[in-house]
Amino acid sequence: MDFDVLRGFVTIAELGSLSKASAALGVAQSALSRQLSALESEIGGRLFHRTGRGVTLTETGASMLPRARGLLSDAQAMVDEAANVMHSPSGLVSIGLVPAWSSPLSGQLVSWQRNNHPGIRLRIYEGYSGEIEEWLTNGRIDVGIFNRYRPAGQEEAILTSSMYLIARSDDLSIGDECKLKALAGLPLALMTRPNAFRMLLEENCNRDGVLLNLQLEADSATAIKGAVLTGGLYSVLPLHSITVERQMGILRGIPIVDPSIKQSTLLKTTTHHPLTAATREVWRALPGLLKSIVDAL
């Protein structure tokens, strides 16, 4: 089976569109369509449902996608490892980040890569913790950074952070600390459910008889911070999630106490395929990069 055909199949599946996939791959859409038809003929069934908005995977296509990704990853790893024998680590490393780490860490990671390993190419996916764990399992990403809010067996956190009430920097109506029960009187913007922290916060509030005044739900940390900045709302996030906004002097964090809520950050690699030398270099660098961000807060 031709690896270019497999790469076309995976790209179509990820982008949900033949036209977008052809643009991303730099091949004519007609040629990509012929490749797909040939692959479907070889498989003996349809891989995609055609819709007015693009394409979606059939059951056959969905079962084939993880294997196709694995084959492509293994082939790329073989090439990269051979190149690494003669040169410094190189090749693509895919990283999954939760939204709270995406903004402060992406720039630090790129700076580290350019200064230390310019042959490494980075691909960053942003998602919730559950999505990142799924991507690690199916091999979509090589390295994942995600959060836990409860003990999880033998897993060891590389960082533990407190959660903060997020407010505008010029909002001085709240002191240096905020008790959990004080959240009841504040208009809040929180992540949409299902979200592990949202669920834990609501459990704590229900236990203590605190009724939250939820004004906005969003699946984007950027949208939530925008609502705090311009919409007069408050939110609850880890302090590192507003690193840029604190540097700009537009947002501040107030520790939540009585009780405090802790967030554990975990770093894991995929077991779906072997790790390349480039992936191992990124994995080794990440704890130090994360710590430098927290130390600067």
Mean pLDDT: 88
CATH architecture of one domain: 3-Layer(aba) Sandwich
The helix count comes to: 10
Computed over alpha carbons, the radius of gyration is 22 Å
**H and E order:** HHHEEHEHEHEEEEHEHEHEEH
CATH class category label of one domain? Alpha Beta
SSE-based structural type: alpha/beta
- Percent strand equals 15-25%
Shape: globular
**Beta-strand segment tally:** 12
Distance between the termini: 51 Å
* Percent helix range: 40-55%
What profile does the largest beta sheet have? 8 strands, mixed
CATH topology of one domain: D-Maltodextrin-Binding Protein, domain 2
Contiguous low-pLDDT stretches (5 residues minimum) are: none
Keywords: Activator, DNA-binding, Plasmid, Transcription, Transcription regulation
Pfam families: HTH_1 (PF00126), LysR_substrate (PF03466)
GO biological process, one term: regulation of DNA-templated transcription initiation
Organism: Cupriavidus oxalaticus
Describe the protein's architecture and organization:
This protein has 297 residues and is α/β, with parallel strands linked by helices. The protein contains 10 helices and 12 strands. Strands 3, 4, 5, 6, 7, 10, 11 and 12 form an 8-stranded mixed beta sheet that branches. A two-stranded antiparallel ribbon has the order 1-2. Helix 1 crosses helix 2, helix 1 crosses helix 3 and helix 5 crosses helix 10. 47% of the residues lie in helices and 24% in strands. The radius of gyration is 22 Å and the shape is globular. The longest helix is centred in the N-terminal third of the chain and has 28 residues. Among the domains are: 68 residues, Arc Repressor Mutant, subunit A; 102 residues, D-Maltodextrin-Binding Protein, domain 2, CATH 3.40.190.290.
